[in-house]
Specification:
By secondary structure, the protein is α/β, with parallel strands linked by helices. The protein folds into three domains: 104 residues, Rossmann fold (3-Layer(aba) Sandwich), CATH 3.40.50.10800; 97 residues, 3-Layer(aba) Sandwich (Rossmann fold), CATH 3.40.50; 79 residues, Rossmann fold (3-Layer(aba) Sandwich), CATH 3.40.50. Helix content is 43%, strand content 15%. It has a four-stranded parallel beta sheet with strand order 2-1-3-4, sandwiched between helices. It binds 1,3-dihydroxyacetonephosphate and iron/sulfur cluster (SF4).
């Protein structure tokens, strides 16, 4: 079967199975083209929580499918590739977080959604890159623990009037992106605006014209009159940026900005998952309930 035939068969089976197919903005082009809904972590969590469908096929990485399973326990959640993990999420464990909490008694914990269900369950509230500053600002008290991303943590800390304690995690994909990469591309495209994801290292963020989540980049690129944009996040975002702005130019500074985990899922994997209704992602109730409290608190923080 060619790609079009596989896509048609996926969509036919999705209808038959009452399934909603979600894809993160970093997925392969053909996965984004086939999915019912594409978006950033926040938008996809909201879709998972609200959908009337009985099955969610999550084209993304493990923590995203787990979030869907936490928010929608009555639904079957499928992750077509169980081996699609997130190295940043694996940099913190529930035991590690408990140990950190014991060093800062009573200080609220804000955990980036790029984390396991067990770590969310140990946290007071979650955040994504789209709402992190608002989430932290919504908390009372002069101190906060921010996990697991030190780069997102420092980005938040610069914008809130609180003492922040960071977990030392990071995204290996964004961490590979350097000041030299930006300088080289800026020399070739002096008029281009530089948009960067808060997972980038602080010295790279310091060079950015605009810092935002993946979905924030779609809004910025379409609303800003500039013609050229340097894209400081994972390569998968280029698909929709170029599709929605055919007259504008988007430049990826380095091919090191590719997340191998986000690229694992193929159309064949999605088809197979709908044929077999697996692999399914579930979260035990004793973890799911406290993790859902942290996610629900995040979802209750007003969005723009
Ligand atoms: P957002 O979609 O929240 O911007 O996510 C970035 C990310 O790294 C997901 O793995
Ligand atoms: Fe994890 Fe980074 Fe890949 Fe996102 S891009 S899934 S944070 S490794």
């Amino acid at each position: 079967m060619n790609q079009n035939e596989i896509t048609s068969e996926i969509l036919r089976l999705a209808e038959e199975r009452d399934a909603l197919i979600l894809a993160h903005n970093y997925q392969r082009d053909e996965i984004q083209a086939m999915a019912h809904i594409t978006g950033d972590s926040l938008a996809l969590s909201v879709e998972a929580a609200q959908t009337g469908k009985s099955v969610i096929v999550f084209c993304g990485v493990h923590f995203m499918a787990e979030s869907a399973a936490i928010l929608a326990p009555d639904k079957t959640v499928i992750l077509p590739r169980l081996d699609a993990g997130c190295p940043m999420a694996d940099m913190i464990t529930a035991d590690g977080l408990r140990e950190m909490k014991s060093r800062y008694p009573g200080v609220p914990v804000v955990t980036y959604v790029n984390s396991s269900a067990a770590v969310k369950a140990e946290s007071d509230i979650c955040c994504t890159s789209a709402n992190a500053v608002k989430v932290v600002a919504s908390l009372n008290g002069p101190e906060v623990i921010l996990t697991p991303d030190r780069n997102l943590g420092r980005y938040i800390a610069a914008q809130v009037d609180k003492t922040c304690h960071f977990w030392d995690g990071y995204c290996p994909t964004h961490e590979r992106f350097t000041v030299d990469d930006v300088k080289k591309v800026q020399a070739d495209y002096p008029d281009a605006l530089f948009m960067a994801h808060p997972e980038c290292p602080p010295e790279v963020l310091a060079m950015a014209d605009h810092i935002c989540s993946t979905s924030g980049m779609y809004t910025f690129a379409s609303e800003n009159p500039a013609q050229q944009f340097i894209v400081g996040t994972e390569a998968g975002i280029l698909y929709r940026l170029r599709k929605e702005n055919p007259d504008k130019e988007f430049i990826l500074p380095t091919t090191r900005l590719i997340c191998p985990n986000m690229k694992l899922t193929s159309l064949e994997d999605v088809l197979h998952s709908l044929q077999t209704m697996g692999p399914q992602v579930t979260v035990p109730e004793e973890v799911r309930i406290p993790a859902k409290v942290a996610l629900d608190r995040m979802l209750a923080v007003p969005r723009d």
